[in-house]
């Protein structure tokens, strides 16, 4: 089968690989129908993910059809359309039982697919712990509607959940990229008093204004002033940082009111600094780290109810043999791209 592969720092290429086989009784083999490219894939390409294994098939945003299941898989069966979770988790360790599936103690726990084990930018993928890692797609939900459930939409849902957003809050989201938009969609489910999205890219600002007219927008140079005016107590009650730059990390705590919650969901290329002498008296609560992606079924229900729609994010669609073009477009942010969909198998 064809599989897009991490060769070495700076190089991905299409390779022929054997079709994956069931290795454990909790495995499933999924025929990938639609995949996408994530910024985390670019982090792997550029060497910013040390645990990524050269030779691994990349990709962790995908949907597909179950081909085979191990003897212990009870949740899905061959022929089912499914989303695939970005994370592998056993469901039984301390962290899984408490909902902290990103820290599953299994050797392949956490983000494994497309990083440490072969992922989904391929014709087929083996999904360990399929009872936890796969979710049924309702018949009237399309592949496009479900494509981001297992990764960036799960990230936005988790970030919103841990941010403790209340109806009277002013919420600031830094970054209107795909993860920022998915976060926005989930924040909107909480109906806070005000939502502000900060973004420097004109195309992305235009995207927010077009699709979410009730949301305030701000450029980085004005966001502190706008947020201070929007909040009732000198700043945002909740800040969600989805941009992943040194400047956005600083803005996250600068725009927060005293005693606010700052949730950092971005993945950075280098360490960030907490300037405690400057920020100490604000008494902020920071929440950081990888997504605990165990709410996919609830997210699919919201999609089925028409409450969340991420299809506007898919601005470009490619065939699998065009995936290098898709990467170039996405990485260089050409042609107003937000997200690309890569059609692996036609349905």
Write the layout of secondary structure elements.
Layout: E1 2-8, E2 11-16, E3 28-36, H1 39-45, E4 61-69, E5 81-84, E6 87-88, H2 94-97, E7 110-111, E8 124-127, H3 130-133, E9 134-136, H4 143-146, H5 152-162, E10 170-174, H6 178-188, E11 194-198, H7 202-211, E12 216-218, H8 223-230, E13 236-241, H9 246-254, E14 256-264, H10 276-279, E15 285-288, H11 296-304, E16 314-319, H12 323-332, E17 339-343
Parallel strand pairs: 10-11, 10-13, 11-12, 13-14, 14-15, 16-17
Antiparallel strand pairs: 1-2, 3-4, 3-8, 3-17, 4-5, 5-9, 6-7
Helix pairs in contact: 5-6
Describe this entry's structure for a reader.
One of its GO terms (molecular function) is zinc ion binding. It comes from Ructibacterium gallinarum. Keywords: Metal-binding, Oxidoreductase, Zinc. Residues 25-131 form the Alcohol dehydrogenase-like N-terminal domain. This is Alcohol dehydrogenase catalytic domain-containing protein. There is one protein chain. The protein is of the alpha/beta class and 347 residues long. The protein has two domains: 2-151 and 292-343, Alpha-Beta Complex (Quinone Oxidoreductase, Chain A, domain 1); 154-288, Rossmann fold, CATH 3.40.50.720. It has twelve helices and 17 strands. The strands form four sheets. Strands 3, 4, 5, 8, 9, 16 and 17 form a seven-stranded mixed beta sheet that branches. Strands 12-11-10-13-14-15 form a six-stranded parallel beta sheet, with helices on both faces. β14 (256-264), α10 (276-279) and β15 (285-288) form a beta-alpha-beta unit. α5 packs across α6 (178-188). The longest helix is centred in the middle third of the chain and has 11 residues, at 152-162. It is globular. It starts with a strand and ends with a strand. 49% of the residues are buried. The mean pLDDT is 95.
């Amino acid at each position: 089968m064809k599989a897009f592969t991490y060769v070495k720092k700076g190089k991905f290429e299409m390779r022929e690989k054997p079709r994956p086989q069931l290795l454990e009784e909790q495995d499933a083999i999924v025929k990938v129908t639609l995949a996408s490219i994530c910024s985390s894939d670019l982090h792997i390409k550029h060497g910013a993910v040390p645990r990524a294994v050269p030779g691994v098939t990349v990709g962790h945003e995908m949907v597909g059809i179950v081909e085979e299941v191990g003897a212990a898989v009870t949740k899905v069966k061959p022929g089912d359309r499914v989303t695939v979770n970005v994370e592998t988790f056993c469901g039984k360790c301390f962290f899984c039982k408490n909902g902290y599936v990103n820290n599953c103690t299994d050797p392949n726990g956490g983000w494994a697919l497309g990083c440490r084990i072969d992922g989904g930018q391929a014709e087929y993928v083996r999904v360990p712990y399929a009872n936890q890692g796969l979710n049924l797609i309702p018949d009237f939900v399309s592949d496009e509607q479900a494509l981001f459930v297992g990764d960036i939409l799960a990230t936005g849902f988790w970030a919103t959940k841990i941010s403790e957003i209340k109806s009277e809050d002013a919420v600031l989201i830094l970054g209107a990229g795909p993860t920022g938009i998915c976060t926005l969609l989930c924040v909107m489910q909480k109906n806070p008093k005000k939502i502000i999205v900060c973004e420097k890219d004109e195309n992305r600002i235009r995207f927010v204004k077009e699709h979410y007219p009730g949301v305030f927008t701000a450029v980085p140079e004005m966001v502190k002033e706008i947020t201070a005016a929007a909040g009732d107590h000198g700043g945002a009650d909740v800040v969600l940082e989805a941009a992943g730059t040194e400047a956005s990390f600083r803005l996250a705590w600068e725009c927060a009111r005293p005693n606010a919650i700052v949730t950092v969901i971005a993945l950075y290329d280098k360490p960030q600094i907490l300037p405690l002498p400057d920020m100490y008296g604000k008494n902020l609560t920071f929440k950081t780290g990888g997504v605990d992606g165990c709410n996919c079924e609830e997210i699919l229900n919201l999609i089925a109810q028409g409450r969340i729609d991420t299809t506007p994010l898919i601005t470009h669609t490619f065939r699998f043999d065009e995936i290098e073009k898709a990467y170039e477009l996405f990485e260089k942010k050409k042609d107003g791209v937000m997200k690309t969909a890569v059609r692996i198998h036609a349905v």
